[in-house]
Amino acid sequence: MPQTQARKSKQTRTMRHSVDTRRKYSTFGVIMVILGMMSVLLGFRLFGFEAEPVIQIPQPTVLFTPTVSSPVLSSSASQPTDSAPHPLVGIVAGHKGYDPGAVCADGLSEADINYAVAREVVDLLQRRGVEADLLDEYDDRLVDYQANALVSIHADSCNIPGATGFKVARVTNSAIPEAEDALVACLNQEYAVYTGLPQHPASITDNMTNYHAFNEIHPSTPGAIIETGFLLDDRYLLEQRPKVVARGIAAGILCFLDK
Ligand SMILES: [Zn+2]
Predict the structure, then answer these.
(1) Residue 259 Cα, ligand 1 centroid: separation in angstroms?
(2) Do 45 and 110 sit in the same domain of this protein?
(3) Residue 47 belongs to what domain range?
(4) How far are the Cα atoms of 33, 56, 92, 134, 137 from residue 140, in angstroms, in the given order?
(5) Domain of 123: which CATH number?
(6) Which of 56, 108, 184, 228 is least surrounded by CB atoms within 10 angstroms?
(7) Would 24 be classed as within a structural domain?
(8) What separation in Å is there between the alpha carbon of 155 and the centre of ligand 1?
C-alpha cells in the first residue's frame, strides 16, 4: 500500500531526523561543556567574567619606636589643666603658737591681729589657685621649707604715739637677692595701694633682716617679712579691716608670682 509505505517512509525519515537532531544537540552540549571547562581554566574570560582580583592589603610598617613619650599621652599631662602644679606659698602668722608679740594696754595682742590677717591671706591666695600653708611662728614645717614664696606677717609696737606705716624686709645675706628683692618690691607696691599706708623704712630692724625663719627655710625659697602697721595709730585698719590688710599682702604675693 503506497500510502502505508509512504507513511512508513515518512516515519523513518522523521525518526532519522530526530536522531540526527539529538546527535547535533548532544554534540553541541559536549562542545559547550568543553568550552565551559576551558573558560573556567582561563579564568571565566570567555564568558566575560573577571576573576576576583586578590587585593593585597599592605601591612602597616613600624618605621620607628618613639623613644620620647609624648607629653599629651603621658599620665601627668593627660589630666585637666586645672590640676597642673599650683604655686605654693607659706604664710606665717607672726608669734602664733609662741608668744603674743606686741601687746596694747587694753590687751589687744599682735599675735591675734597677725593671725586674723594671715588666715585671710591664705584664703585669698587659695581662691586664686595658689596653694598656701598657714604656719606658726616656729612651725616645724619651716625647716627646709620649699615654696614659691614665704611671707611672715607681723605688726609693730603699740607704744609709739604718732608712728604710722608699714615696712617689708628680706634676709641680709640672701642666696637669691633678685627674687627676694622682687618679692619685697611687690609687697611694698601692692600693700601701699590697698591700705593707703605710707612706708616706714626707718624702723626696719635686725629682727627683720635676720628673722629666724629666713635661716630655716630652703635657700631657694624667697622669703620676706612685713610689719603691717603700728598697733597704736594704725589700730583701726589692723583690727577692724583685716581683709583690707590681707588683700594688700595677697596682691603683693600674686604680683611676685606673676613675674
Ligand atoms: Zn612681731
Answers:
(1) 28
(2) no
(3) 1-69
(4) 102, 71, 12, 12, 9
(5) 3.40.630.40
(6) 56
(7) yes
(8) 6
Are residues 48 and 110 both part of a single domain?
Answer: no
Question: C-alpha cell of 259?
Answer: 613675674
Q: How many angstroms does the Cα of residue 37 sit away from the middle of ligand 1?
A: 109
In a domain, 251, yes or no: yes
From the CA of 229, how far away is ligand 1's center (Å)? 11
Amino acid identity at 176: I
Centre of ligand 1 from the C-alpha of residue 235, in Å: 15
Tell me the three cell numbers of residue 256: 611676685
Q: How many angstroms is it from 146 CA to the middle of ligand 1?
A: 23
Do 209 and 136 belong to one domain?
yes
CA of 99 to the centre of ligand 1 (A): 9
Length of the chain: 259
Cell representation of residue 210: 635676720
State the total domains in the chain.
Answer: 2
Q: Are 154 and 94 in a shared domain? A: yes
Same domain, 203 and 97: yes
Do 138 and 98 share a structural domain? yes
Distances (CA, A) of 65 to 61, 86, 193: 11, 34, 57
The answer on 158 and 104 residing in a single domain is: yes
- pLDDT in single tens digits along all 259 residues of the chain: 445 555 555 555 545 555 555 666 666 666 565 565 655 555 444 443 344 444 443 443 333 333 333 333 233 333 445 566 899 999 999 999 999 999 999 999 999 999 999 999 999 999 999 999 999 999 999 999 999 999 999 999 999 999 999 999 999 999 999 999 999 999 999 999 999 999 999 989 998 999 999 999 999 999 999 999 999 999 999 999 999 999 999 999 999 999 9
